[in-house]
Specification:
The complex is a heterodimer of chains A (about 475) and B (about 100). The longest helix of chain A is centred in the C-terminal third of the chain and has 35 residues, at about 325-355. Chain A has two domains: about 5-400, Sodium/glucose cotransporter; about 405-485, no CATH class. The N and C termini of chain A lie far apart (about 60 Å). Helices cover about 75% and strands about 0% of the residues of chain A. Chain A has helices at about 5-25, 35-40, 45-55, 60-70, 75-85, 90-105, 110-115, 120-150, 160-175, 180-210, 210-220, 240-255, 260-265, 270-285, 290-295, 310-320, 325-355, 365-385, 395-405, 410-415, 425-440, 455-470, 475-485. With about 100 residues, chain B is mostly helical. Chain B has one domain. Chain B has three helices and no strands. Chain B is elongated. The chains are: A mainly alpha (about 475), B mainly alpha (about 100). At the A-B interface, helix 5, helix 6, helix 11, helix 12 and helix 14 of A face helix 1 and helix 3 of B.
């Protein structure tokens, strides 16, 4: 068998195992909406650890991370910090959210907000904003899968076909098995990602420079700007501190608020498991170090890939590694992409039905599940079409999604901790913050100090929420106690 | 130290973490040398904060476990025949069920 043949066989074997794990996992869950969306609230520590880690770290981390280290140098370090900053509040918030889920039967993030702030308009707005953030995020994952398969097969399988193959399989197990498939495939894929990242991240600098230290010494001697914060921007000029610092803050808030991660709090068997998952999360986060080393290893190469996001497969193919290792690398990168994409697709279908449709039209349990499946296909189709467009980088797409998701933070904190918040306050804050965030996304040249649009949105969002809430009548005390006394 | 103290330490730590990795503090820690374990100082600075989070939250969780065990001991002591400890009735447990 020739080299590409062996690589293709390894990729197909990996995809087959993933599909098998996903389908078998679905047999454990009940056939109710709660089984499909929240896994009957029965995930243990192992699955929660990997579902959290593998969902946060995606094709963006596995391909965009090295891409940034390669093209923008130290700017990539922002990615190393925000995950833990975003996850730490979950130690306190996660058990509270899970308890409210058990008390009121919530399975989505918006259900909790709308439970505290009753409004069908709020439910619809949250569903629309969530889907608006999810489509670019799923797009990243699909492009990532397509990039890897196209690169390692030397173009034999083009990006469109690679993305379609990987996500065809994701669709099958998400449609058949719901969140149980997401949990167990993420566990399998998480192990793969961690192992491949650490092995390659240490191996490539040794093979190309004689070690990690010698690699950075040579980079410092030849391209010192790359090792000075805040690094470079997309066009190779110095990035600015406002953009770097607010990218960390916006991304950290985004991690705390991502609806698909939020929904996973409802799947945990106990509060202890949520807390332990948060404590162990930094061990997952540190896998970004070898991921960056891979990107830095490409900095001094005379040739360069067409796009910075291709640097990882570009290096793998030039380092004359055995076909088996290349195939396994490809499986690791696909793991990163699919483990996030499946959680997003599942969450998109669930949010669209539970928050966008159910408040307006009472559906049976069976009809809800079927509609969720249709919407998983619709969102997947939209993201697939976007993935074929090449005019953006993976990290830029992710930052745009975080701008929207950031706006959920004030409402959620108010729902869980602020007695005086009102529905009108939350709704006005959300509309004002989102409008500002979208405005600065569309007109980036107007951003003060290059700050992230999500943070600029919050600057308007917070005073509007507080002001409108204080101007109106407080909510009924007994109703508020149901959410604050947990 | 009590759970309450460890919780406060954890909050303070993560606020300092956010300050430490953004402008202006990060601008003061911006020389790649000396390399630590072969890595630029700024990368190790970020990794150090990440690891510190694990340690701080682990200590919070240990304090929580100790406090839960202490509450359980007090409750079982209060229910033993012949022991009437009014002070233990209604003693709160750390927030959140296990």
């Amino acid at each position: 068998m020739d080299r590409f043949g062996l690589i293709t066989v390894i990729i197909l074997a990996y995809l087959a195992v993933t599909l098998g794990v996903g389908l078998v996992a679905g047999r454990r869950a009940s056939r109710s909406v709660q089984g499909y969306v929240a896994g009957d609230r029965d995930f243990g520590l192992l699955v929660m650890y990997f579902i959290t880690g593998a969902t946060v770290f995606s094709a963006f981390a596995f391909l965009g991370g090295p891409g940034w280290a390669y093209s923008r140098g130290a700017a990539a370090f922002y990615i190393l910090t925000y995950g833990v900053l975003g996850m730490a509040p979950w130690y306190a918030m996660g058990p509270r959210v899970a308890a409210l889920g058990r008390r009121f039967g919530f399975v989505t993030q918006a259900q909790l907000l709308v439970g505290r702030f009753p409004s069908r308009a709020l439910s619809l707005l949250l569903a629309v904003l969530t889907l608006a953030a999810f489509v670019p995020y799923v797009t990243i994952q699909m492009r990532g899968a397509g990039i890897v398969i196209e690169a390692v097969t030397g173009g034999t399988i083009p990006l469109w076909a690679g993305a379609a193959l990987a996500y065809g399989i994701v669709m099958v197990y998400v449609l058949a098995s719901g969140v149980s498939a997401v949990g167990w495939t993420n566990t399998f894929q998480g192990v793969f990602m961690l192992a491949i990242a650490w092995v390659l991240g240490i191996y490539l600098p040794y093979r190309m420079y004689g070690g990690v230290g010698p690699m950075f010494e040579q980079i410092l001697a030849q391209r010192p700007k790359l090792l000075s914060l805040p690094g470079l921007d997309g066009s190779g000029n110095s990035w600015n501190w406002g953009a770097y610092s607010t990218a960390i803050l916006a991304s950290a808030i985004g991690v705390t608020m991502w609806p698909h991660l939020f929904m996973k709090a409802y799947t945990a068997r106990s509060d202890k498991i949520i807390r332990r998952t948060v404590i162990l999360f930094p061990t997952f986060q540190l896998f970004l170090i070898p991921v960056f080393l891979i990107g830095f290893a490409g900095v001094l190469l005379p040739e360069s890939p067409d796009q910075a996001d291709f640097i990882l497969p570009f290096l793998i193919l030039r380092s004359e590694l055995p076909a088996l290792v290349v195939g396994l690398f490809c499986a690791g990168a696909l793991s990163a992409s699919m483990s996030t994409g499946d959680a997003l697709l599942h969450a998109a279908g669930s949010v669209a039905v539970e928050d966008g449709v159910q408040p307006f039209m009472q559906l049976s349990d069976r009809a809800q599940r079927n509609l969720m499946r249709v919407l998983v296909l619709v969102v997947g189709g939209l993201a697939y079409l976007s993935a074929l467009y090449e005019g953006f980088s993976l990290v830029d797409l992710l930052l745009a999604s975080y701008g929207i998701i950031c706006q959920f933070m004030p409402s959620m904190v108010a729902a869980l901790y602020w007695r005086r918040a009102t529905t009108a306050g939350v709704l006005s804050g959300l509309l004002a913050g989102s409008a500002v965030s979208v405005f600065f996304f569309l007109f980036p040249e107007l951003k003060p100090l290059g700050m992230h649009e999500g943070i600029l949105g919050l600057v308007v969002h917070l005073p509007v929420l507080i002001g409108v809430s204080l101007a109106g009548s407080p909510q009924d005390r007994e109703h508020v106690d149901g959410y604050l006394r947990v | 130290m009590s759970l309450r103290t460890w919780r406060r330490i954890a909050w303070a730590y993560h606020i300092l973490f956010a300050i430490g990795v953004t402008w202006p503090v990060q601008a003061l820690v911006n020389d790649p040398e000396p390399f630590v374990l072969g890595l630029p100082t700024q990368m190790m600075w970020a990794a150090g904060w990440v690891l510190g989070s694990l340690l701080v939250l682990w200590r919070v969780d240990s304090a929580r476990s100790r406090e839960i065990a202490a509450v359980a001991d007090r409750r079982s002591a209060a229910h033993r025949p012949g022991i009437h400890s009014a002070g233990t009735h209604g003693a709160g447990s750390p927030r959140g069920g296990e």
